[in-house]
Amino acid sequence: CGPILRDPPLDSRKCFEGVEQTLNGLASFSPTLSNPFSMNRKGENGTTISLMDPEMCIDHCADYLFAYAALKNSAECYCGNDSVTVYYNNPSNGTCNSTCAGNPNLTCGGENAFKVYSTITNSHYSYGQNININKKLELISKNSDPRYQGCFQDGPSCRTLNGTTPQVENSMTIDDCINICNQNSFKYAGLEDGHQCFCGNDYTVNGQASGAPNEQCSTSCVGNNSQICGGPFALSIYKVPNNSSTNSTLKIVGVVLGVLGGVLVLLFIARRIT
After folding, report:
1. What phi and psi values does residue 137 have, to the nearest 5 degrees?
2. How many CB atoms lie within 10 A of CB 222?
């Protein structure tokens, strides 16, 4: 168990009042994504809690390549590309006085006010550079890798895959994580937040898996932005190939077939040994 590694908090642009018309980017996709976006998980006592804070919203909007992220009503996250300064009134920051559901030390907008952030300097935005948003949406919605088990929730403190201390690499890919878990004899590999790798032998709790919507596994892999490596508090889980087959070696065996035209004929056979 331990905290999920996060980016440092970013300064907000300002507090704005207005309607959601310039911040409804998540609803513009087909099929539409959750708008507003929320991040709920089960707490230690089994009740549902919201983990929403500025970094959570910024990460999500950056994953979908939006320029702006905005928080409203403590736990609502909106995304958009249009400059909010054109359409919105700018009240005093005191209007954005709702405590963040996921961090009581920060504010997340107000009842009718948005606290707006730029996503451009966020690491998640850089992970997804040089990839078309339509291609990324396809990657998020469809994963044809036979090893892929799905998108699953990760807890705010205790990991779903808790077999190892997370590996954090600046060049993480799906195969990198699978190889790490394979070398440590684990059955499953999980990628989170674009660059974290977790291993374990079970991703269920009391036999039940806590699945997450595909849209929450939306972060491009640091080492290959044509792959998805989970998301904030969300794991892309893969089955690790059987150790006996992946760790075995090939032995070349030669068999003499005979002599043809004065030339010795050999048949070479590759045999897998463990």
Report:
1. -60, -35
2. 22
The per-residue pLDDT of the chain, averaged, comes to 81
Residue 264: CA count within 13 A, CB half-sphere: 5
Side-chain-facing half-sphere of 150: CA atoms under 13 Å: 10
Helix/strand/coil (H, E, C) string of the chain? CCCCCCCCCCCCCEEEECCHHHCEHHHHCCCCCCCCECCEEECCCCCEEECCCHHHHHHHHHHCCCCEEEEECCCEEEEECCCHHHHCECCCHHHCCCEECCEEEEECCECCEEEEEECCCCHHHHHCCCCCHHHHHHHHHCCCCCCEEEEEECCCCCCCCCCCCCEECCCCCHHHHHHHHHHCCCCEEEEECCCEEEEECCCEECCEECECCHHHCCCEECCEEEEECCECCEEEEEECCCHHHHCCEEEEEEEEEEEECCEEEEEEEEEEEC
pLDDT digits (tens, 9 = 90+) for 68-100: 999 999 999 999 987 665 556 666 657 889 999
Tokens of 203: 């991703």
Distance in angstroms (rounded) separating the CA atoms of residues 131 and 185:
34
Q: Is the pLDDT of residue 10 over 60?
A: no
